[in-house]
Protein: Dihydroorotate dehydrogenase (quinone)
Organism: Bizionia paragorgiae
Amino acid sequence: MYKVLLRPLFFLFDPEKIHHFTFSLIKSSSKIPGVPALFRSLYCIEDKKLEREVFGLTFKNPVGLAAGFDKNAVLFNELANFGFGFIEIGTVTPKGQVGNPKKRLFRLQSDKGIINRMGFNNEGLESAISQLKKNKGKLVIGGNIGKNTATLPENYTQDYVDCFKALHPYVDYFVLNVSCPNVGSHAKLNDRDYLEELIGAVQQINKSFPTQKPIVLKIAPDLNTVQLDEIIELVLTTKLDGVIASNTSVDRSGLKTPVEKLEAIGNGGVSGQPIKEKSTQVIKYLADKSNKAFPIIGVGGVHSAKDALDKIDAGADLIQIYTGFIYEGPSLIKKINKAILESER
């Protein structure tokens, strides 16, 4: 029904406006008695064989929703009814910010992709926490954190520390988002020395809590093998809990979308099918080169059960979807989980 009726209708409208409309639709419909149960009967698979122990956490299944969809943690309880095993909220910054000027979200329909330059638009820490306090404990929640755009370079680490400290009681794991191409000072966030400083700072805060939370690093899909070797070394030396591979890409080669349309869109990160192979290759390189020394969450271009299995075969322990969720609809989650069960028989 989604691909035949709803998607063609949704795709008639501006992507960002329809995103907010869809949120309101899911939120309001989920208040109708019987609707959450209906969603669960349609999309959820409950099977112990799908459970995964990763980072010391138990995921009821390995299919998650990537950060950027539920930025402000307003819909995770309702989205749990669509069969996700975990949901990553954010990116959250200490203060709320409007992000980049609109229009900033674009569909590449012929490529089954999206370009975005949202710029970490979110309502800030206090708003996210007020929503997370409503957590009904249906699934694992990740907290993706970043810095405010206006923050001076000498205060970047403090932004991450503030987010980490405040969100610690409310999320199950943390993601250090240092690879988004849509925020300023991208270069410093990828500097090896700076990353060691940042990781050390949040790890120190982590130790101050009775229960420590896993910390993972989200990396770009555009890194070369030398840079990936540095990531492996960084993860091992700092004892990070894992890696998310990968964020959006700045590479636009091989797209079917006409060049003139891409030029009219302007800058932004590409997600969806165009980065499927690239993110899978990054996963495989990290897994093989490190001899599976740390867990990997695979994300990027998962639009089918086969796409997900390819990432798992490459070395991913968990899978996230975002653009695939928009293009394929909620049935994608069930299809992936069914395929995983069948592949393990």
The radius of gyration is 19 Å. The first strand starts at residue 52 and ends at 54. The chain has a mean pLDDT of 96.
